């Protein structure tokens, strides 16, 4: 009877093990997904009902992790989001989360993944022209 219990346990765990992703996310994949998420989140905040009036003067945020100018763009945007403290919508959860996650991405790119990332272009004007995602 104990053999059947162990066999059942093993057979029930095999699909779980096989469905689990084999490789953990790399620095590059983590940075790429965070950048896409932040670009979309910033666009949503500019269109959002609660936040559109105070985010209207903010520049569009487009984060291309292959562009060397992205670090300067993130520093500038972080300071702009932190400067929103005088306005009412700066204290909404969505705006605070945008600033916090943007700061996380900046630290992640500059410290954690410093040697793993390679910037292939250096064109700051591309980041100003929001191509959309």
Automatic annotation (TrEMBL):
Coiled coil regions in record: none
Residues annotated as signal peptide: 1-19
Organism: Notothenia coriiceps (black rockcod)
Name used for this protein in its record: Cytokine-like protein 1
Keyword Secreted: no
Gene: LOC104947533
Keywords noted in UniProt: Signal
UniProt-listed GO biological process terms: positive regulation of transcription by RNA polymerase II
Highest taxon of the lineage: Eukaryota
The keyword Signal is assigned to this record: yes
């Amino acid at each position: 009877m104990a053999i059947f219990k162990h066999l059942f346990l093993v057979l029930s765990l095999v699909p779980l093990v096989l469905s689990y992703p084999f490789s953990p996310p790399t620095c590059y994949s983590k940075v790429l997904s965070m950048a896409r998420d932040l670009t979309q989140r910033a666009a949503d905040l500019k269109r959002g009902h609660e936040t559109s009036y105070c985010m209207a003067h903010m520049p569009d945020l487009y984060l291309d992790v292959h562009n060397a100018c992205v670090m300067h763009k993130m520093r500038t945007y972080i300071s702009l989001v932190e400067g929103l403290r005088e306005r009412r919508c700066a204290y909404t959860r969505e705006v605070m989360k945008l600033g916090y996650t943007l700061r996380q991405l900046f630290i992640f790119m500059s410290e954690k993944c410093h040697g793993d990332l390679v910037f292939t272009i250096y064109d700051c004007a591309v980041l100003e022209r929001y191509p959309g995602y």
